[in-house]
Design a protein that fits this description.
Elements: H1 3-19, H2 23-33, H3 40-47, H4 52-67, H5 71-104, H6 108-118, H7 124-143
Length: about 160
Amino acid sequence: MSPKKANEDKTEIGRVALKALSAASLNLLVDGICAGDKSRFDAAMNAVTLDEETRATILREGNDSLSKRSGRQLESLIEKSFRKKVNTLRCLGQVGLLPLLEELVPGVAQRAAEAAAAGGGASKRHDGKRLRKLQKVVEALHADGSNADQCSADARPDTD
């Protein structure tokens, strides 16, 4: 498999994992990534929890494998599936996740780049590399015609 094909597969798997999250979980993820904290990505990933809406989505996706189960076994499989989705997003990393989040929440890549520029870190060299990567993501999204500069809180999905 070519590297480009493998990257496309990871992106599609990440897209599927993001679609399983509820609007509230998606907002937690976006807010965490756009925070000024040094460890914003890990904190954002840890903030995503299994809520009822996400649970229902996983049940719908599970088809036959989950419909034959009940009780503790069903709950265990749902939790395992949720952890797998979160770990999939974690493996993509912030740079890989931002373009996917940008599809759902326009402006998040720009906000994350600004947070990286404003936030401190363990080393200036490491922060500089991360900032350059995030700026490349934002530039690529702008080149693709994305409206990443229209960042506002009302662009997020409703949590009602």
